[in-house]
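W.,

You were right to be curious about this one. When I first looked at the sequence I had no strong expectations either way, so I just let the prediction run and decided to look at it fresh. Below is the sequence, 148 residues in total, followed by the output.
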Amino acid sequence: MRGPQVMKGYWNRPEETAEAIKESWFYTGDIGVMSEDGHFRIVDRKKDMILVSGFNVYPNEVEECIARIPQVQESAVIGVADSQSGEAVHAYVVLREEGISEKEVIAHCKQELAGYKVPRKVVFWQELPKTPVGKVLRKEVRARVTGS
């Protein structure tokens, strides 16, 4: 995007500014799709996209699927390095109430998602890391899981 309302750069971070702003265009890192009538919808962030055997998996889509399970309060989906597929989908889930297993979450996802989008692993956590306004921090989840 570009326009007078777009930032001029990141404060004291020239390298990040150079990556994000090129020839006066700001590259947001958002991934969107356009509907037939020309409207755009943001589906996820490029840096959060999971690449499974050459297929793009958007964590938001998997999280929305998991959110339809009544016992689930919230989830975070990330890609974890996998020797066979490049990355594997892993879900970290906070339950609203007990009574659902990893196998049941995976079975639910298999009913609604393409096979490559289904989490290979589901881990139940007591809480997910969040911003002060309550947005789940996938970056923090990834850091806790992978150590990077």
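Here's what jumped out at me. The two ends are 30 Å apart (CA to CA). And, maybe more interesting for your project: The mean pLDDT is 92.

Coffee later to discuss?

I.
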